[in-house]
């Protein structure tokens, strides 16, 4: 019997992991969950109702009410929501509530693609393929700034770079599930790659992981 193809993709903000995850899901015909959206949706629910971001019980309540089906990056993409999400994401009880839902998504059927910060280390430690996507902070800030320009968001480059560095620090420095590559993750540095080259490299890493899992086929 073929084992489900679970693909875990982790990496810092604006590393290109989201685009790669979407394209891998399409290529391998698998459902995709951008787990960053789950933290963003909790943060947005708190912001919209004027609640503080650091009250664990309120945040857990919002996390329990989350519906994975309706998550939409366009509505959650604003960088203030990303910043708020990384504050909500330091609380262990919030993480446990969201991780339970993310695991259910991953267990469903033939496999799935999940991207985030702790997929290979915590959410799906048994994933068949684990990729850790990185790029230099300046390059990530440049990509994020370009995206924002296209959407008409006016912000200066230095502010975007500072935001990326602050988020890296918070995500890598937190006690619960810090951002780091799983021991068995394949590192992919996209600083010098366009998205097509990164996509080809990612497919080849996933195919190698599949052959290693099913050496006979
Ligand atoms: O990936 P994205 O920028 O949408 O994630 C927003 C924030 O949510 C991250 O900065 C991180 O703090 C948090 N997050 C997390 N674990 C995940 C996904 C996102 O802690 N698996």
Description:
The model has no long low-confidence stretch (mean pLDDT 94). With 217 residues, the chain is α/β, with parallel strands linked by helices. The protein has a 5-stranded parallel sheet with strand order 2-3-1-4-5, with helices on both faces. It is built from 10 helices and 5 strands; from the N terminus they run βαβαααααβαβααβα. The longest helix has 19 residues, at 195-213. The protein folds into 2 domains: 1-31 and 111-209, Rossmann fold, CATH 3.40.50; 35-107, no CATH class. The chain binds cytidine-5'-monophosphate.
Q: How many whole angstroms does the radius of gyration measure?
A: 17 Å
- Structure summary, number of beta strands: 5
Strand order of the largest sheet: 2-3-1-4-5
H and E order: EHEHHHHHEHEHHEH
Helix content: 40-55%
What small molecules accompany the polymer chains? Answer: cytidine-5'-monophosphate
User: What would the average pLDDT be, to the nearest integer?
Assistant: 94
CATH topology of the largest domain: Rossmann fold
CATH class of the largest domain, named: Alpha Beta
Q: Report the β-strand fraction as a percent range.
A: 5-15%
| Structural class based on helices, strands and sheet pairing | alpha/beta
Summarize the biggest pleated sheet: 5 strands, parallel
Given the C-alpha coordinates, what overall shape results?
globular
Spatial gap, N to C terminus: 11 Å
Number of domains: 2
Counting DSSP H or I runs of 4 or more residues, the number of helices is 10
Spell out the CATH superfamily of the largest domain. P-loop containing nucleotide triphosphate hydrolases
The CATH architecture name of the largest domain reads: 3-Layer(aba) Sandwich
């Amino acid at each position: 019997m073929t084992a489900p193809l679970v693909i875990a993709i982790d990496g810092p903000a604006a590393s290109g992991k989201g685009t790669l995850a979407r394209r891998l899901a399409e290529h391998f015909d698998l459902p995709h969950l951008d787990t960053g959206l789950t933290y963003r949706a909790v943060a947005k629910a708190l912001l919209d109702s004027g609640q503080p971001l650091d009250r664990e019980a309120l945040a857990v309540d919002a996390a329990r009410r989350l519906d994975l089906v309706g998550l939409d990056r366009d509505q959650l993409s604003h960088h203030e929501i990303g910043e708020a999400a990384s504050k909500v994401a330091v609380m262990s009880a919030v993480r446990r509530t969201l991780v339970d839902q993310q695991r259910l998504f991953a267990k469903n059927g033939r496999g799935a693609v999940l991207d985030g910060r702790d997929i290979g280390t915590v959410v799906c430690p048994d994933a068949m393929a684990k990729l850790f996507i990185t790029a230099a902070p300046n390059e990530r800030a440049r990509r994020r700034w370009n995206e924002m320009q296209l959407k008409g968001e006016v912000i200066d480059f230095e502010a975007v770079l500072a935001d990326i560095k602050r988020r890296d620090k918070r995500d890598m420095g937190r006690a619960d599930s810090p951002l780091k590559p799983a021991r068995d993750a394949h590192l992919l540095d996209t600083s010098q790659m366009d998205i097509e080259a990164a996509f080809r490299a990612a497919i080849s890493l996933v195919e190698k992981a599949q052959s290693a899992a099913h050496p006979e086929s």
